[in-house]
Amino acid sequence: MCLIVTIIMFVLSIQNLMQSHWLIGGLQLLISFGFLFLLLRNIRQAQCDRTGNCNSCVLPDFITKLFKK
Q: Per residue in 51-66, pLDDT tens?
């Protein structure tokens, strides 16, 4: 789901930025990067849960406490 939202928001932001709609394009780009961040965090957390060693393969603790599974 995060991948689909990321791709859609990124495409919409590029279209809006090409049409000089800077505010809405920038907001959509920010949203797409947010969903990309969540997607990458979930992938790394799943890899760490699978292997069992979660030393340094996830993001810093202050970020992981904000975004739980």
A: 777 665 556 666 667 7
Phi, psi of 39 (to 5 degrees): -65, -45
Type of residue numbered 2: C
In angstroms, rounded to a whole number, what is the distance separating the alpha carbons of residues 19 and 38?
28
Q: Is the CA virtual torsion 57, 58, 61, 65 positive or negative?
A: negative
Q: How far apart are CA 51 and CA 53, in angstroms?
A: 6
H/E run at residue 25: helix 22-51
Q: For the whole model, what pTM was predicted?
A: 0.72
